[in-house]
Amino acid sequence: MPGEARIIIAGAGFGGLAATRILARAHQKVTLVDQANYHLFQPLLYQVATAGLAATEIAIPVRSIFRRYPWVEARMDTVVGVELDAKRLLLSGGYLEFDFLILALGAVTNYFDHPEWEAYALSLKSLEDAIEIRSRILSALEKAEYEKDAAKRAALLTIVIVGGGATGVEMAGAVAELTRHALRGEFRHIDPARTRIVLLEAGPRILPTLPPDLSSKAQEFLQQLGVEVRLRSPVTALGEGWIEIGAQRIAAGTILWTAGVKANPLGKAFGLPVEPNGRVLVNPDLSVPGYPYLFVIGDLAAVRDASGKLIPQVAPAAIQMGEHAARTILAELEEKNTLRKPFRYIDKGTLATVGRSMAVAKIGWIQCAGWIAWILWLFVHLIKLIGFHNKALVLFEWTWSYLTFRKGARVILRYHRPSRADSAGKAS
Amino acid sequence: MPGEARIIIAGAGFGGLAATRILARAHQKVTLVDQANYHLFQPLLYQVATAGLAATEIAIPVRSIFRRYPWVEARMDTVVGVELDAKRLLLSGGYLEFDFLILALGAVTNYFDHPEWEAYALSLKSLEDAIEIRSRILSALEKAEYEKDAAKRAALLTIVIVGGGATGVEMAGAVAELTRHALRGEFRHIDPARTRIVLLEAGPRILPTLPPDLSSKAQEFLQQLGVEVRLRSPVTALGEGWIEIGAQRIAAGTILWTAGVKANPLGKAFGLPVEPNGRVLVNPDLSVPGYPYLFVIGDLAAVRDASGKLIPQVAPAAIQMGEHAARTILAELEEKNTLRKPFRYIDKGTLATVGRSMAVAKIGWIQCAGWIAWILWLFVHLIKLIGFHNKALVLFEWTWSYLTFRKGARVILRYHRPSRADSAGKAS
Predict the structure, then answer these.
(1) What ipTM does the predicted assembly reach?
(2) How many CA atoms lie within 13 A of B22 on its CB side?
(3) Which of A231, A292, B122, B174 has its CA 20 to 30 A from that of A1?
């Protein structure tokens, strides 16, 4: 028989899902709220943006994940507030009363002090973002094919990626593979392989969380694929079709922003205690001071390790926090008055892939680069992806892509529904 | 060495593609213009709308289809006009001069005398349409799950499909399978299997182009799946969330319009001679009277068979016309002054599937219904779909779906890009 406590988890990202899974298996009544009807496997989002995978291949309906646990409810709704003392989670479609709440609202793209840049530099956080980036990259090539002005054509064939973290590096590698290999032989007036791909990193090296020799190795891989890697190159200005690094201006048809994330501003908006970076201050057990029934996990939580360093905003940390919060709730429900255990983060390592047979990995004290790291990357991502259906599709896409050098999802979708007047030229 | 004539084909639907293929193989210089960068396999569009297939699985990049024919150019652009005497095709991004032009601009949804209905009754002609229908159907169920008002809940759980042709029938069957099987066990407060599905047909039977006994059989199949089939029920009025058949009003969260198509209005707009239905009048060789270098094919052309009956607006007719027009051009290029052959339509039959093991088929004088027709349907659609990649994916999706009763692409995409303020509740 399921437990009687009302547990609510807000956010179906890695953290929220991990917490729900623990509680579901323990027969606890859980409501998992998310504004989307699916869990998004974000580590592969850049592959949707570069036409390697279909959007639906990395999005798994939340209902379907928990269909065998009748005591778990998936609710698609938007979180708009929390009444901390009344223990109510406010949704745009009503409210939910809780005995325990786990807030796992994640992060949003950080344009630092330039929110106005969002209009020109596309972020990569949602499926809609990825579909839009895919359309923009492919459309720029389509336009370049018939652009007669050499300067305009060169601009259309320039893609600037801001940010040398894992997303920026993986994105740059995938764009290189798309333009260098997948489109070979398909254009008549341009050579997509000559697309200029610039990766801008403000700091002294890419992948700064990895050891310096792996950063160098990844940079070497990118350069082999023809990516221009520019270190110590902070963006100073950008607008429609151009970006500036100090005095230097680059005309670019596509500008992608992967320079950072920040905690979902809802933490602060809900009146929770936050650090200057917007992450919510939590006790060692991940609960909010003064509210033992409210946990904050994942990218939204400011958790420090023994040395006082903030735990990074990565999926494994969110998963571990989700499991910790869920186990704390379970312990409390099973035997009252237990002493809560502090959360300890176990760094399982970092993997980043650049392209075919090129990846870097640091797992414990093992470091590797190249083919082995690449196989490891494939393997880890495939097993972490939820569901047989999605695993099988992604494995097929990767195998096909590996054998043929092609990419299967090269479709330009019109984001805003076209009016009928636009339908010229489209046959039945 | 490729030929020197400039041949332009406007529209990459079935007709345009068939014409291009013939000319490509004959080493003719062809430019294929379409507003999309892909050929859409429309017969399976309803499966995207009902979450059985991903959008990219039925959309094949035009460039990729003809990549091995360097003398064929794919141009993504919108046709805006034709200068018949100057032999120029006007595009939104310039113009193209031609020696031969094949117009294959297809059809658009026909709301008959009620263009205002378009806002409330969704059509199914483009990938964007299909993605929107999928989101609407899934969203209605999500809303119904938490709707406390019984009447509102019942309305959300009502889907009305207008039009008992092949698209309406296949759509109704697929919605039934989605709600009756694929979502089993996933909701906590509603039973999606009790979704009311109403198929409205104005005439006396569904699938009117098939023999009456196959119409009855298809209706029986639909009823087995719990679809309410209403014959002789022309829509008299509709609006946001409701539809009327005479005095009877049905409150419905989702209204889909598959009641008919009409020729792309561009035929008339370009000043071509048209029938009252908008289809362009053509000579027996498919050229426009007075313009031997201009061919009109597919849903846009008004072609009559020997008995004077208009040839139906279906894919096989478009393909045959495309091939005929292409061969006529080839003959003319190879030996001048040939007598042009008249087009003859060969009716290859009709297939429509209702659901698992339920289909109807008429091929020549062979008629069948049930399991054999269903296998035939699967086989024909799979071989007609272009490309190994897409065939393999669709085969996998169908097999998986057959074995598990599930549907793999149940993702609600937000059509208009959400603002950042909407991102509450979406974890990283």
Answers:
(1) 0.93
(2) 21
(3) A292
Q: Number of C-alpha atoms within 13 angstroms, CB side, residue B373?
A: 23
Average pLDDT over residues A17-44: 97
Candidates A211, A183, A213; CA nearest to A195 is A183
* Cβ contact, residue pair A125, B425, below 8 Å: no
| Exposed e or buried b per residue across B216-248, where buried means at least 16 C-beta atoms within 10 angstroms of its C-beta | bbbbebbeebebebbeebebeebeebbbebeee
**A400 SS3 class:** helix
Q: What is the pLDDT of residue B173?
A: 98
Residue A170 annotated among the catalytic residues of the structure: yes
Strand pairing class (A59-61; A227-230): unpaired
The model's pLDDT over B369-379, given as tens digits with 9 standing for 90+, comes to: 999 999 999 99
A219-229 tens-digit pLDDT:
999 999 999 99
Taking an 8 Å cut-off on Cβ atoms, the answer to whether B412 and A36 are in contact is yes
Residue of B57, B147, B170, B201 marked catalytic: B170
Which residue does chain B place closest to A64, by CA atoms? B186
Domains and CATH numbers, chain A: 7-35+77-109+261-334 (3.50.50.60), 115-259 (3.50.50.100)
Residues 6+ apart with CB under 8 A from B413: A55, A127, A128, A131, B131, B135
| pLDDT of the residue at A335 | 82
Reference B188, options A26, A74, A37, A20; nearest CA is: A74
Shortest CA gap B165–chain A (Å): 16
Nearest-CA distance from B185 to chain A in Å? 6
Cβ separation of A14 and B423 shorter than 8 Å? no
